[in-house]
Amino acid sequence: MESLMEKLLERCMELSDGEEFVFSDGRMDSSIMLIGEAPGENEVKLKRPFVGKAGKNLDEFISMLGIERDDMYITNAVKIRPHKLSLKTGKRINRSPSKAEVDKFRELVLEEIKLITPKIIVTLGNTPLKQLLQRDVRIGDVHGMLMYVEVGDKTYMLFPLYHPASIIYNRDLRQVYIDDLSRLREVIHGLGI
């Protein structure tokens, strides 16, 4: 398993075209796989997904599930930081990944899923949801619903959640998120996780 992960890491380096990247974090034998959008500035600095403000929200939400972050496998749909230059400061600021960036990393994410073989995949936001389902779907229409996705010759449970950063920008989503986490907790416990 370690050598397969090393091959995926090498593939990630190739796809990153010399840009700094963030691969994944967590246990390779995990029953729960979280897929976020893409790393931000803090994630690139620390080489770990979800360590900024959204990471603090994620940690709080994970604790509501009654599990530890270290018991999960966490990755992103896009492994490099999508950015643009701020007209005001001239510094890099985050942006949503382009379709080309999402498509570029899709096969790598599918290979991660095949290697980890989780009991359930939790997508965080629109980007990983669209990447896996390969169709135009909005998180606002399907959040908190149990779905299924085919990867290779296996069908996986899929549970879409809003991205933890969405709570930072829209405090009204907090209760929706908590309700969705309550449903996710029931599913996880039903799976014996």
Order of helices and strands: HEEHHEEEHEHHEEHH
Category from helices, strands and their pairing: alpha/beta
Biggest sheet layout = 6 strands, mixed
| Approximate helicity band | 40-55%
Assembly category: single chain
Q: Count every beta strand, where a strand is a DSSP E run of 2 or more residues.
A: 8
Rg, Å, rounded: 16 Å
Gross geometry? globular
Chain-averaged pLDDT: 92
Strand proportion, as a percent range, falls in 15-25%
How do the strands line up in the largest sheet?
A: 1-3-2-6-8-7
Instruction: For the record, give the distance between the C-alpha atoms at the N and C termini, rounded to a whole number.
Output: 21 Å
Tally of helical runs? 8
Low-pLDDT sequence parts: none
Can you walk me through this structure?
The chain is α/β, with parallel strands linked by helices and 193 residues long. The protein has eight helices and eight strands. The chain has a six-stranded mixed β-sheet with strand order 1-3-2-6-8-7, with helices on both faces. Strands 4-5 form a two-stranded antiparallel sheet. β4 (83-85) and β5 form a beta hairpin. α1 packs antiparallel against α4 (99-116) and α4 (99-116) crosses α5 (126-133).
SSE order and pairing:
Blueprint: H1 2-15, E1 24-26, E2 32-36, H2 41-46, H3 53-65, E3 73-76, E4 83-85, E5 92-94, H4 99-116, E6 120-124, H5 126-133, H6 139-142, E7 147-151, E8 154-161, H7 165-169, H8 173-190
Parallel strand pairs: 2-3, 2-6, 6-8
Antiparallel strand pairs: 1-3, 4-5, 7-8
Helix pairs in contact: 1-4, 4-5
